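Board work, copied verbatim: OGRL1 protein
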Amino acid sequence: DGTELTAKPKRSFYAARDLYKYRHQYPNFKDLRYQNDLCNLRFYKNKIPFKPDGVYIEEVLNKWKGDYEKLEHNHTYIQWLFPLREQGLNFYAKELTTYEIEEFKKTKEAIRRFLLAYKMMLEFFGIKLIDKTGNVARAANWQERFQHLNESQHNYLRITRILKSLGELGYESFKSPLVKLILHEALVEDTIPNIKQSALEYFVYTIRDRRERRKLLRFAQQHYTPSEHFIWGPPRKQKLEGSKTNKKPASPVSIHNSCISKHKKTKEPKNTSASGSSGGKTTEERKVELTKNGEENDQDEQEMNCDAVRQNNSEKNSDTDSGQLSKSEDIHDTSDRKEDTSHSKKDDERLNSDCGNHPGTKEKDLCDTENSSSSTSADLQDNLDKDTLTGGTTTKNKDELK
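↓ predict structure ↓
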């Protein structure tokens, strides 16, 4: 029992689909069916009895009123007292049609009896109708009837049908006061706690006005316990927090800024001023191309930056150092082939020949510089990456490394 009480409720797909059809897609059949019969209107005119019991409406309103045992155990009269444009459990009852609804609203005798039938069922539930606007309150026998209503849950289906029928026959405004009273008794007063699931799944969603439905859902959310189990109104705060957490790890701006910060300009030696001026021109041209090309150049820059970071992290492995330098040079050749094809090819050959002829001395120098000061090796590596990207010669890179 403890696990059932604390279990989080689940929305009913059947209820949502059924009440959506009621609010938007009625009728559920071709409207020409039983158009000339008008059996529901004739029953309320006291011309025919309801089937299969054979009882007229006047007898039901006069003799069945207050007979709670008969109203509880008889299951065939409710489809006749509150007709709908859909088939119920009593197959002798006929569905309403739009033509019959219009004729029903014009007949004062039928409307008067319909309101009397509504009052009779409210008293059966322990509720009384206060005024003509549909306001309701507890009846004199509310304690006994609320206890019975809390136990006999098949009456929740009857309340749903009554609410639907009120909307069909011109009393849409009567729904909200009844649903509000039921929610108050179930959530605040705790007199009929077993009805709250049906009230939130069915009763609220019989109301066609969306603003009225939202008011009732807000009222229910304020008094629902535990509050985290309220599933009929999505909590806004949780949605905002979830969206923020989803956006934080995938922010492209922070990744772009972090990559740019790794490639700030470092101070170059004085003897490389001539080559730096030619390299500066190429960097300015690339800045123009970056602004023109947009996202594609941003991706290329990120890939080059990632290659530079990989080169800096792989200096500890002697075998992979020369391979990565040649790989970065190959990427430089493919990207700058249009600008300086002959010059980049010569640099590539020189760098590959140097790495192939003197791998031991070069790797030893790199390891020595890394062990002596990590910051100096990082600056030299950044200068190496800049010169390779901007088209600098490999001979100057070797001088800087030494």
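The chain has 22 helices and two strands.
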